[in-house]
Amino acid sequence: MIRALYTAASGMNAQQTSIDNVAHNLANVNTAGYKKSHVEFEDLFYQHTRVPGSSTTTGDSPTGLEVGLGTRVVATSRDFTTGTFRATGSSLDLAIQGDGFFQINRPDGSTVYTRAGNFHRDAQGLVVTADGYALEPAITIPENATSVTISRDGAVSATMPGQNAAQQLGVIELATFQNPAGLSPLGGNMFQITSASGDPQVGPAGNEQRGMLTQGYLEDSNVSVVEEMVNMILGQRAYEASSKVIKAADEMLAQVNNIVR
Question: 166: Cβ–Cβ under 8 A, 6 or more apart, which residues?
């Protein structure tokens, strides 16, 4: 019974982590470019009384006798499927149709990656994120530009007063990874590379299996509220079941302690 208490407690801890993950997904249901995650579990080690194939008086045992010691959370896996597109009408809002990440240059000189394409123009005309981090490669839009056009392959052009032909300002490049699930989330819609993600493969949009850009749209979160509600109910019921196991084990221990000799 003591073992049952600890085993059930491991299940409660694991389900609490699962509920925490569901809460985080639901909290970001309206976050542009957010990618949902789900919790992965694994069973803990076993106490073996008899292993399969061990010798018995009648021959080799076809099955073993073991008792498991519960579960634990082993990973949170991120789902990078594309979210729905939402029209905004802003010339600096971009959505990636397919694989790829925008490259963002942080003040410390490091490069991070994001799927959120809600860009703005700062006081110097640089295209930046909502936090003021510059897009990489840097794109500067002249102050007197009357319109900005971003093509599907990332070419940025601006029309100047008194000119009929648009002036090209630069090209937005995207980064792809062998294993995007290996990227480490930093918050603020940003990811950084790890040894698990591999090095970024950088190039223009639409080349080498990179996605295309769509101007005037944002990619919404790929969180499904219905799916997360179901996951929440499943986690809650599993948590309740483990708590009932603890209660049953405690009652059994109480009966043993109350035996009159």
Answer: 149, 157, 158, 159
Which stretches of 32-176 are assigned E, i.e. beta strand?
Answer: 37-43, 46-50, 55-56, 59-60, 65-68, 71-78, 85-87, 94-97, 101-105, 111-114, 120-121, 127-128, 134-136, 147-150, 155-159, 167-171, 173-176
Q: What is the dihedral of CA 24, 25, 26, 30, to 10 degrees?
A: 110
CB 191 within 8 A of CB 177: no
- pLDDT tens-digit profile of 172-201? 999 999 999 999 999 999 999 999 999 999
Q: What is the pLDDT of residues 228-260, one digit of tens each?
A: 999 999 999 999 999 999 999 888 888 887 876
DSSP code of residue 239:
H
The predicted model scores a pTM of 0.85
DSSP for 191-226, written as a single string? EE--TTT---EEEETTSTTPPEEEETEEEPP---HH
E-state strands within 115-207: 120-121, 127-128, 134-136, 147-150, 155-159, 167-171, 173-176, 184-187, 190-192, 201-204
**What's the start-to-end Cα distance of the chain, in Å?**
20
Nearest alpha-carbon partner for 204 in 230, 237, 229, 170: 170
Torsional sign, CA 237, 242, 246, 248: positive
pLDDT in tens, 29-82: 999 999 999 999 999 888 877 777 677 666 677 777 788 889 999 999 999 999
